[in-house]
Amino acid sequence: MTTATAYRVGQRIVHPRFGVGLIVEVRHGRGSDVLEVVFGQELKRLSARLPWELAGEGAEEDLAPRAAEDTEGAAAAEGESADDAAESPEAPAGEDSAEERSLWRAAPEGEALVARWAGGEASDPALFTAGYRAERLSAWAAADRLLSLDSLRGVERFPHQLKAALAVMKDLGGRALLADEVGLGKTIEAGIILKEYLLRGQIRTALVLTPASLCEQWAEELREKFELDFVVSRGAEGRWGDHPLVIASLETARHTRHRARVRRVGFDLVIVDEAHRLRNHLTLGWKFINELGARNLLLLTATPVQNDLRELYNLVTLLRPGAVGTFAQFRAEFMTAGDRLKPRNTDKLRALLASVMIRAQRANTQIKFPRRNVKTLTLDLSPAEAELYRDVSEFVIRTIDSGDEDVARRWYFTLVVLQKELGSSIAAAAKTLQHLANKAATGLSAKALKELASRAATSGRSTKVEALVKLLGGLEDKAIVFTQFRASQDEIARALTEAGIANEIFHGEQTWQEKEEALDRFRGPIPFLISTEAGGEGRNLQFAHIVVNYDLPWNPMRVEQRIGRVHRLGQEHDVQIYNLVARDTIESYVLEILEKKIRLFELVVGEVEEILGHWEPEGSFEDEVFKIWVASKDDETRSKNYAEFAGRLAAARKRYQEEQELQKALLPEAKA
Amino acid sequence: MSPKKRAPKAMSAAIGKSAGVAPGPVRRPVAAAPALRAEDLGDDNESRAPFEAFAIDFLRARGAAAVEFAPLEWDITLPLDLSKRWRRPSMRLVFDASRSTLPRGAAFAAPGSQLGLKLLSEAREGGHVARLHAEERAGVDARSVAGEGLVLHDVDAGAPKIAVPMHVLQVGFHATLTFLGGSPEQDLRSILADPRGPSFDFWEPDERRRAHLEPGFPAGFVPAPLDRAALWGEARTWLERVLEPRADKWKRKADESRERDLARLSAFYQTRIEEERDRRRRRRSEDGEAEEPSTEAALKLEWGRRTKAVRARYEPSIEIRLWGIEEIARPRQEVRYPLSSAGKSVGSFAVEVDLASGALVRPPCPECGRPAGEFWWDGAGLVCRRCRARAGKPGSRARKGS
Questions:
Q1: Which pLDDT belongs to residue A665?
Q2: Which pLDDT value is given to residue B9?
Q3: Contact by Cβ (8 Å): A199, A379
Q4: A325 vs B contacts (CB less than 8 Å)
Q5: Greater confidence, A198 or A440?
Q6: Is the distance from CB of B270 to CB of B300 less than 8 angstroms?
Q7: Under a CB-based contact definition with an 8 Å cutoff, are residues B389 and B41 in contact?
Q8: Which chain B residues are within 8 Å of A111, Cβ to Cβ?
Q9: pLDDT tens, position by position, A487-532
């Protein structure tokens, strides 16, 4: 320890009562020389005329008494918590400086082992061998070894992800913006870092903050791919402090009811998914993360900048305050007056951003993203099928639009499903019609239902099925046929079998054993798999590269998920997509929007989600599609309404593309 | 130099004091030990992936029954204690990381999977002590090994006396060093100690593998009493001394990183505080152009908090965790050369030949204690090249027959 009376900002002093504090101000005024010193959560004023002890390196920060954890509760206002300058120093609390303290320390378990050895203990040599191997397998030794990789199951890993994980841990000190382009696996990168830190014992607690709708998905993915058991914190109580690994929505965590408790846990690592929600420094979310004080912080977003370069500044400042200066400095050096999106000194900016950001671009990852080739088979339904489609649709619209709100509300979802079934197959709709007719459902016309059910039951061979049989008969490679409904699946399987085409079915009601066997046969000699969406989730079906959409979900994400079963990183062939759609059905409108406006079939994994994120509807895409269908009085209005809807989505896609161009121009690229 | 001129001098420091060794004829080891070969002692079984080999061997060593169900899949019946602890009598282990789904009741076994961590932790728990021995290799001629391996200058060596073979005790310490402060690093270090000096050297995994160690001590071999805690203490001191440059470098790196981060924070917050004062002076409104408006005190507290976090992050330390100790009995034979200079007897020099490896054990320099294979007579005793140079007599390259 040394003492001094000439102090400077940034030095640390040891106070007998408050412990070690940081000098943040030295004021020399008339008659009083004052130091302002931060001790823990408190700002104190001390006399600068007194010879306070200066703390050496490594002096224990914990000498500072624990103040209130909640800074909002602590007196943050200037002067409010400041002590009088007349504080006099007392004898210092005894502590060693780094020079005096040894750098080396022995782990207690080693000393216990020596004691056992001294007592004559010896192990079974086979157990010694196991222990020896276990130690070598557990050690991460070289900093470049990622232990976590061995434990990822069913996860494709790519060099850019591993480089990113290593760079975050080695070079960026665990605080980084992961800004890879969409579809390059930011979540996997974050998962690897998280798991690696846990395995290395560098963190014990972690908090993942996601949009509320993604909490369960994150929990599932971390469990499935990384074997990490996270709990989702919901409700008034929350799960703060009772479990080391927690997922919550940002809104929940920053809520006044929770935020002090979240801060008290002191999570070692915080991951914020969809971190573009933190681009605005005036939001509660930004402030919450800024005050959280997590040792390690990962922000995940493909678009750190949208409308203003300041957004980028805000994200960087959360991670490393000062990395790009204060905002005034940033604005003066890197922003163009009058254009908030036009950067200056881009090279320097990129160099500074590289200290806090990892961004891989598809073009530089050397990963071959397979192309998507799409072919739509637009079919004309038989007159009987077309008439039935029209009549059932009219029944649905009439019921919802009947003016009887009770009936409309009660049957709304059933009727939505009926309309979707009808788009898939008459066989699928027949079941629901029969069910409703049998129940003599309240408020519905039993007579009409019975008539429709009877026609559906006797409708004969489906045009779509025949087209499918013909299509599959001409394919030379394996294909997965997706349908939403079990009844359609059965009809397809039956028709294929009758035509002598071998096939397997795969759906969520099968046992694990049945599913495995079906997949094994599909991997083997069977060329076609008829699958529902529920059955295919999480399965690696990359050995096939043809997807047939027998019917079309109204939700683009579901379409994307189907394609994603085979169109993933690592797929070696171009992916061929066939869409079967009947003319003048809802699905034909949906397909036109997906194909022509969003251009879904040209995108890569994850982009649809981003585009939909730029479209701000009142309800979901699916709701919008159905609402327009019901609300349009005739085909002309319907076409016009769908065209207007499509226009909004096309604009969303354009905005998305413009943003991508901006990121490309502005952000540093990860080295290949 | 002919073998005749290679001659030893009595070595009181290292070899001569063989207090810890029970000299006597070499005894054959007990044959009852399980069929544990060198490759079992920490090396990967080549027919299986390292983790699979570890898991199956460990479970078997703990008394479990393991049957290979399919490649990379094993059915395990756990012993009573493990089945109680893990709350299941049996399980299927799947080692195939490419499988996206697992059979019901199966567990994925890899170094970072839940079950993998359980296995590793179970195997590591508390560390282990082993007793091993090295088998004598047939046909090792200690006289010729010593004659070939040792080079002496400026002194005449007479006909050596060959002692009876004996076993000596060596101790292997296995430790993990974790360098903390900034981005941590780890080193796995093994030290081979000869308690008779004591002397220490690093023990590389390859050397260990080549040592062909067998389980158990040879029958009748009882090591001399040994202050084990003191030996570990000395080994640790030696390790810290040898790794001092590395430790200094580590500390410097942590210090530099810390200072860099502190300087950045300091510049940022000082500027922010100035900007805040300026804003207040000008009574500027809190518009979107301004930094997030804060009070000076709030900025100062935030600065203090972040400074503390940076200091904690870069606090350098090196943790030594000892997790394995091996006591090894090695067959040795002493070869003692009478020495003479200018026709006068000047004592003797003893070296040891390791009968397991068939190599000369490089004797420690009587002056500095470092192992060496070449010595010079300096008029009073034998010294190594380094001690000779230090005394101002640069060691010339040894010439055969000088």
A1: 80
A2: 34
A3: no
A4: 268, 271
A5: A198
A6: no
A7: no
A8: 322
A9: 999 999 999 999 999 999 999 888 877 887 888 899 889 999 999 9
What pTM was estimated for this model as a whole? 0.75
Say which of B236, B298, B326 has its CB closest to residue A76. B298
Give the pLDDT score at B394.
56
First-to-last C-alpha distance (Å) of chain B: 5
CA A273 from chain centre, in angstroms, equals: 5
DSSP H or E stretch at residue B321: strand B317-341
| Residue B226 burial class via C-beta count within 10 angstroms: exposed 0-12, middle 13-18, buried 19 and up | middle
Percent share of chain A, pLDDT over 90: 43
d(CA A254, CA A265): 14
In chain B, which residue's Cα lies nearest the Cα of A202? B184
CA–CA distance, A447 with A452 (Å, rounded to integer)? 9
What is the nearest CA distance from A157 to chain B, expressed in angstroms?
11
Eight-class DSSP state of A492: H
Region of A382 please: left (phi>0), alpha (psi -120 to 50) or beta: beta
Residue among B70, B93, B75, B52 nearest A520 (CA):
B70
Lowest mean pLDDT among A96-100, A415-419, B93-97: A96-100
pLDDT band for position A570 (50/70/90)?
A: low
Helix (H) or strand (E) holding B166: strand B166-180
Would you place residue A622 in the very low, low, confident or very high pLDDT band (cuts 50, 70, 90)? confident
The count of C-alpha atoms lying within 13 angstroms of the C-alpha of A126, restricted to the half-sphere facing its C-beta, is 15
> Model confidence at A540, in pLDDT bands (50, 70, 90)?
low
Chain B residues with beta carbon closer than 8 angstroms to that of A79: 297
**Nearest chain B CA: its distance from A586 CA (Å):** 36
Q: Which residue of A has its CA nearest to B266?
A: A10
Of B108, B175, B313, the CB nearest to A295: B313
What is the sign of the dihedral through the CA atoms of A318, A320, A325 and A330?
negative
- Chain A residues near residue B101 by CB distance under 8 angstroms: 154, 512, 516, 538-539
* Amino acid present at B341: S
Distance CA B37, CA B118 (A): 26
Rounded CA gap, B31 and A252, in Å? Answer: 67
Give strand ranges (E) for A540-671.
Answer: 546-549, 575-582
Look at residue B16 and tell me whether its pLDDT is greater than 80: no
Chain A neighbors of B216, CB-CB under 8 A: 125
- Judged by CB atoms closer than 8 Å, whether chains meet at B124 and A138 is answered as yes
**d(CA A477, nearest CA chain B) in Å:** 23
Select the residue of B42, B57, B232 nearest A136 (Cβ to Cβ). B42
Q: How far is A137 from chain B (nearest CA, A)?
A: 7
What is the model's pLDDT at position A536? 55
Q: Across the strands, what pairs with A503?
A: A528
- What is the reported pLDDT for A62? 47
Testing the interface with A: which of B128, B257, B291, B294 to mutate, by most A Cβ within 10 A? B128
Q: Which amino acid is it at A268?
A: D
Buried b (16+ CB within 10 A) or exposed e, B163-176: bebbbbbbbbbbbb
Say if residues B132 and B356 touch (Cβ distance below 8 Å): no
A94 burial via Cβ count (<10 Å: 0-12, 13-18, 19+): exposed
- Beta-strand pair A372-379/A575-582: parallel
Residue of B351, B354, B347, B355 whose CA lies nearest to B365 = B351
